[in-house]
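Here is the promised in-class demo. Please do not try to memorize the tokens; focus on the logic of going from shape to residues.
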């Protein structure tokens, strides 16, 4: 209701989804098609194409673990044997295998069928392998789309264009010229209605193992030979496999986990995480900061600081590439401080790119230095509304283009790195550090980067 139907509606309105298509909602809830359309109407709000779009919607009540209704569902799909079929499993990963087995049992994996798996795939390497093995019995890897919607965000794709469409950056894109990289995904939202899922997952599984690592890969990968799906994914995989391990020996030094308490978010008083769980004890983290490193020639010694959390002061996602300072300053102290160049890629809100440069303050009065951004806001520059990530990705599935989806080996490599961090936290037995809602996480996250003589980036530098 929040992400998928609006994405489909927008693509329908642009004529990219023909009216012979069907969108079939499936859940255990005992709804019918009319009831589903009613819910969709309420969720989608006013839109000039709403009525025509609602006509595409159908509903079937099914339980992955019970027989009832599956014959009827298979018969419904048999009405359109030649259509591309996309089975989008927006469910807990524990159900992926049951659902795929059902689909396979009815031969629904044949022909132009694809399955979309939402992250996280499993909760560790072992469960991810089990899921991938079992799903692989029914759907070939080429039919399996592991979605990470961060890869569909405009700025992430723009990173490819910036890095590989300009001669300017690539010669500087290495440990010789880059001081460090910061990746922040901050949310103001709290737990919402997702306690059942989130409390078992936590921020490392929910955000870092997938979204943040995928962003890191896009920054750090070698130039692929083409944009073909495997060329890009091969390069990302190499990055994941080059991440320096974090385990019991160094986790306390390189990671910080936090959990929000009551505070103020989006101008409103909000309860703490444990209050939302109604008193159930929990040591699930809602905030993580990590100093990651990539052990290869290009990146040796360049820290990648990752940070994500719920109930932070603003909804903001960005990648900051901080270049090394000039080797020697020719300016008098009165000219003011010299700042490092930074390339800031803003994913949301206000997608855009800023390149911070040092210039002379215009006018008389001696040479004073100013740090200013070359600023390209995509909305202003192109006057277009950015499509939501799901709009792009859902159509990629229909078209059969897996470039922006995670291949099995990528998911495994990401778990291989994330697993020992989770194990180290479990072994350490320390509860997550508390932070007040509406703040940038526990003070230890500030200490993590300041120990290295650096600070988390703010928009005005
Ligand atoms: C999802 C996570 O994958 O991404 C959520 O499960 C999170 O916890 C969401 O809120 C953030 O996505 P976006 O596009 O709103 O930044």
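The designed amino acids, position by position:
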């Amino acid at each position: 209701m929040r992400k998928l139907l609006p994405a489909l509606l927008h693509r329908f309105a642009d004529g990219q989804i023909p009216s012979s298509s069907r969108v079939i909602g499936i859940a255990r809830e005992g709804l019918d098609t009319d009831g589903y359309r009613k819910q969709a109407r309420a969720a989608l709000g006013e839109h000039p194409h709403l009525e025509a779009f609602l006509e595409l919607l159908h509903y079937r009540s099914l339980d992955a673990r019970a027989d009832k209704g599956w014959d009827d569902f298979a018969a419904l799909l048999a009405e359109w044997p030649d259509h591309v079929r996309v089975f989008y499993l927006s469910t807990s990963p524990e159900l992926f295998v049951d659902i795929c087995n059902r689909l396979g049992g009815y031969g629904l994996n044949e022909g132009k069928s694809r399955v979309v798996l939402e992250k996280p795939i499993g909760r560790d390497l072992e469960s991810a392998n089990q899921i991938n093995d079992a799903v692989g019995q029914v759907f070939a890897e080429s039919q399996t789309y592991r979605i990470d919607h961060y890869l569909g965000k405009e700025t992430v794709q723009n990173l490819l264009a910036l890095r590989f469409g300009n001669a300017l950056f690539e010669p500087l894109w290495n440990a010789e010229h880059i001081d460090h990289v910061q990746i922040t995904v901050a949310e103001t939202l709290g737990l919402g209605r997702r306690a059942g899922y989130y409390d078992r997952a936590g921020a490392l599984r929910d955000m870092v193992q997938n979204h943040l690592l995928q962003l890191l890969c896009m920054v750090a990968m070698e130039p692929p030979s083409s944009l073909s799906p495997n060329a890009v994914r091969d390069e990302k995989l190499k990055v994941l496999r080059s991440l320096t391990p974090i385990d019991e020996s160094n986790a306390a030094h390189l990671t910080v986990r936090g959990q929000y308490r009551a505070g103020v978010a989006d101008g409103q008083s909000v309860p703490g995480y444990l209050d939302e769980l109604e008193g159930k004890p929990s040591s699930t983290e809602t905030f993580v900061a990590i100093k990651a490193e990539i052990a290869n020639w290009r990146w040796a010694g360049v820290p990648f600081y990752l940070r994500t959390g719920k109930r932070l002061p603003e909804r903001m996602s960005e990648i900051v590439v901080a270049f090394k300072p000039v080797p020697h300053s020719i300016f008098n102290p009165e000219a003011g401080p010299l700042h490092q160049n930074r390339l800031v890629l803003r994913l949301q809100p206000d997608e855009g790119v800023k390149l911070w440069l040092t210039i002379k303050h215009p006018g008389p009065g001696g040479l004073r230095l100013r740090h200013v951004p070359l600023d390209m806001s995509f909305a202003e520059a192109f006057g277009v509304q950015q499509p939501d990530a799901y709009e792009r990705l859902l159509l990629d599935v229909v078209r059969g283009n897996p470039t922006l989806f995670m291949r099995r080996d990528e998911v495994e490599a990401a778990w291989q790195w994330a697993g020992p961090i989770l194990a180290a936290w479990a072994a350490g037995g320390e509860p997550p550090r508390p932070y007040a809602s509406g703040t940038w996480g526990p003070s230890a996250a500030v200490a993590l980067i300041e120990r290295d003589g650096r600070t988390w980036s703010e928009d005005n530098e």
